[in-house]
UniProtKB/TrEMBL annotation:
The gene is Eef1akmt1. InterPro entries: DNA_methylase_N6_adenine_CS, Efm5/EEF1AKMT1, Mlase_EEF1AKMT1/ZCCHC4, SAM-dependent_MTases_sf. This is EFMT1 methyltransferase. GO terms for molecular function: nucleic acid binding; protein-lysine N-methyltransferase activity. The keyword Plastid does not apply. It is found in: Cytoplasm. One of its GO terms (biological process) is methylation. Keywords: Cytoplasm, Methyltransferase, Transferase. Its main location: cytoplasm.
Length: 213
C-alpha cells in the first residue's frame, strides 16, 4: 500500500517557525487586549487583511500623518480617511481634540466605529451616502489599496468630491506622475513606514504647504 503521507505538502521548517511565531504574537496580542482594558481604536486592534491589500502604517507614521491632518484641518475641522484606517485609529486616540473624522473603508470590520464608518468601494467612487456632502471635508487622507492607475483615478474622484481643497495621498513612489495628473499633488520629503516592510517604496503626496517636508 502506498504511503498516504506522500500527498501532504510539507511546510519547510522555516515556514513552520514563521507561522508559530505569528500565532504566538497573535496570542500575546489577544492577551494584551484583555489585560490592558484594550483600546479598540489602537493600531492592530483590527488585524490587517492581506487579501484586501491592507498594510498598516507603523505607529510613528500613523501618528505623524494624524497630527498633520489635525493641523491641516484646523480648529473644528473635518477629516476624511479614505482606505487609511490606521490614521483614523490614531486620530481617534486623540479624542477630545477639536476635530471630527470619518472613515471610508471597504473592510466592514471597521463598522465597529459606528456612524463614522462609511462603506466604500473604490470601484464605485461616488456611491456615497447623501449625508456626505460634496466639499465638506477640510482635508482628505487617502491610501488607495492598489498601485494601479485605475485604482488611483477612481479614488481621486472620491477625494475631489469630498475635499474643500487639501489632499494628503499615500501611495507608491512609482505613482508620482499619476498622482500629479489626477490630483495635482507633489511628493513630500516625509517617508511613511509600515509595520511590516513593503516591497514597493512608499511616499506621501500633498497639494498644500504641509509639515511633511
Amino acid at each position: 500500500k502506498m504511503d498516504d503521507d506522500d500527498d501532504i505538502p510539507q511546510l519547510s521548517s522555516h515556514t513552520l517557525a514563521a507561522l508559530q511565531e505569528f500565532y504566538l504574537e497573535q496570542q500575546q496580542r489577544e492577551g494584551m487586549k484583555t489585560s490592558q482594558g484594550f483600546n479598540q481604536y489602537s493600531i492592530g486592534s483590527i488585524e490587517e487583511d492581506w487579501q484586501l491589500s491592507q498594510f498598516w502604517y507603523s505607529d510613528e507614521t500613523a501618528l505623524c500623518l494624524a497630527k498633520e491632518a489635525v493641523l491641516a484641518a484646523g480648529k473644528g475641522g473635518r477629516i476624511a480617511c479614505v482606505s487609511a484606517p490606521s490614521v483614523y485609529q490614531k486620530l481617534k486616540e486623540q479624542a477630545g481634540e477639536d476635530f471630527s473624522v470619518c472613515i471610508l473603508e471597504y473592510d466592514r470590520r471597521f463598522s465597529v466605529y459606528g456612524e463614522e464608518f462609511i462603506f466604500y468601494d473604490y470601484n464605485h467612487p461616488l456611491d456615497l451616502p447623501e449625508s456626505l456632502l460634496p466639499q465638506s471635508f477640510d482635508i482628505v487622507i487617502a491610501d488607495p489599496p492598489y498601485l494601479s492607475e485605475e485604482c488611483l483615478q477612481k479614488t481621486a474622484e472620491t477625494i475631489k468630491y469630498l475635499t474643500k481643497g487639501k489632499i494628503l495621498l499615500c501611495t507608491g513612489a512609482i505613482m508620482e506622475e499619476q498622482a500629479a495628473k489626477h490630483l495635482g499633488v507633489k511628493m513630500c520629503k516625509f517617508i511613511p513606514k509600515h509595520s511590516r516592510n513593503l516591497a514597493n517604496e512608499f511616499r506621501c503626496y500633498v497639494n498644500y504647504a504641509s509639515g511633511l517636508d
